[in-house]
């Protein structure tokens, strides 16, 4: 028999009710707030993205009102991961010549990771030859790096190429239509010659030494090669050897580029 002197006994059911109610309370942050904070637009715009079924959380299409834990949940818009996990960094480096694109060089040469902060550890997205200059992304976001470099996404890369001699219209046409290399025909490219011997070339494949081999194939060896754009990312004021973090808008544009390409 219960005695009224037992103080715990009558309160236990109430406590259990509270515990049950607490479990049902929504936790985490509202999805539209998390999206808005990562640059996907106003909360209203983000609500529309959710309503249109373009946002998934851990693979499931999210409903309006959904709450998420940005540290645990995998959030994607149109299939592109939203970089909401704290600790992810995205650097844009203007790589100078003479620096190797690797995390660690076996010959002790200076590497691109030596030019950016050492913590957290980042790795280059794709590679530029030791003699190539220009824009290179470094990140610890493996998902995004994989998507950018994966051939199926075909993110555009634009190069300014100083070549030997002046390229004829026929040479430009060959670059545009595709050049036969020892690993097969290159995909159509955008090619123009803003001044004699200087080409602007946009490709979306990432084959080894591709631009140099394409130019060799049309009889105009490369004298200087500078990457000037990666998808939507460009920067004319970053000096060789300097780096900066991508802005939220740039991260978003990049995520969109890999999702739509
Ligand atoms: N194409 C090349 O030939 N070299 C690079 O570094 C990048 C693209």
UniProtKB/TrEMBL annotation:
Which SUPFAM superfamilies does the record cross-reference, listed alphabetically? Alpha-L RNA-binding motif, Pseudouridine synthase
Q: Which CDD domains match?
A: PseudoU_synth_RsuA_like, S4
Top-rank EC class of the record's enzyme: isomerase
Q: Which InterPro entries match?
A: PsdUridine_s_RsuA/RluB/E/F_cat, PsdUridine_synth_cat_dom_sf, PsdUridine_synth_RsuA/RluA, PsdUridine_synth_RsuA/RluB/E/F, PsdUridine_synth_RsuA/RluB_CS, RsuA_PseudoU_synthase, S4_RNA-bd, S4_RNA-bd_sf
Write down the superkingdom of origin. Bacteria
Tell me the GO BP annotations in alphabetical order.
enzyme-directed rRNA pseudouridine synthesis
- Listed GO MF terms: RNA binding; rRNA pseudouridine synthase activity
Q: Which UniProt keywords apply?
A: Isomerase, RNA-binding
Family from the record: Belongs to the pseudouridine synthase RsuA family.
Protein name in the entry = Pseudouridine synthase
* Classification lineage: Bacteria, Bacillati, Actinomycetota, Acidimicrobiia, Acidimicrobiales
């Amino acid at each position: 028999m219960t005695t009224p002197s037992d103080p715990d006994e009558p309160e236990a059911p109430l406590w259990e009710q509270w515990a049950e109610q607490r479990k049902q309370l929504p936790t985490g942050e509202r999805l539209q707030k998390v999206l808005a904070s990562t640059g996907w637009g106003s909360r209203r715009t983000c609500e529309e993205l959710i309503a249109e079924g373009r946002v998934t959380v851990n693979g499931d299409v999210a409903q309006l009102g959904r709450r998420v834990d940005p540290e645990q949940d995998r959030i994607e818009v149109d299939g592109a991961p939203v970089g909401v996990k704290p600790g992810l960094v995205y650097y844009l480096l203007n790589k100078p010549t003479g620096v190797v694109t690797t995390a660690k060089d076996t010959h002790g040469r200076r590497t691109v990771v030596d030019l950016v902060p050492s913590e957290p550890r980042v790795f280059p997205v794709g590679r530029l030859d030791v003699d190539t200059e220009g824009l290179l992304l470094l990140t610890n976001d493996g998902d995004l790096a994989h998507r950018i470099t994966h051939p199926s996404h075909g993110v555009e890369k634009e190069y300014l190429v100083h070549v030997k001699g002046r390229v004829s219209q026929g040479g430009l046409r060959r670059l545009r239509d595709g050049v036969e290399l020892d690993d097969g025909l290159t995909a159509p490219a955008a090619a123009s010659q803003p001044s004699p011997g200087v080409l602007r070339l946009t490709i979306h494949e990432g084959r080894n030494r591709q631009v140099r081999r394409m130019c060799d194939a049309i009889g105009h060896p490369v004298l200087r090669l500078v990457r000037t754009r990666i998808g939507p990312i460009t920067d004319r004021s970053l000096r060789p050897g300097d780096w900066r973090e991508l802005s939220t808008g740039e991260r978003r544009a990049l995520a969109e580029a890999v999702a739509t390409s």
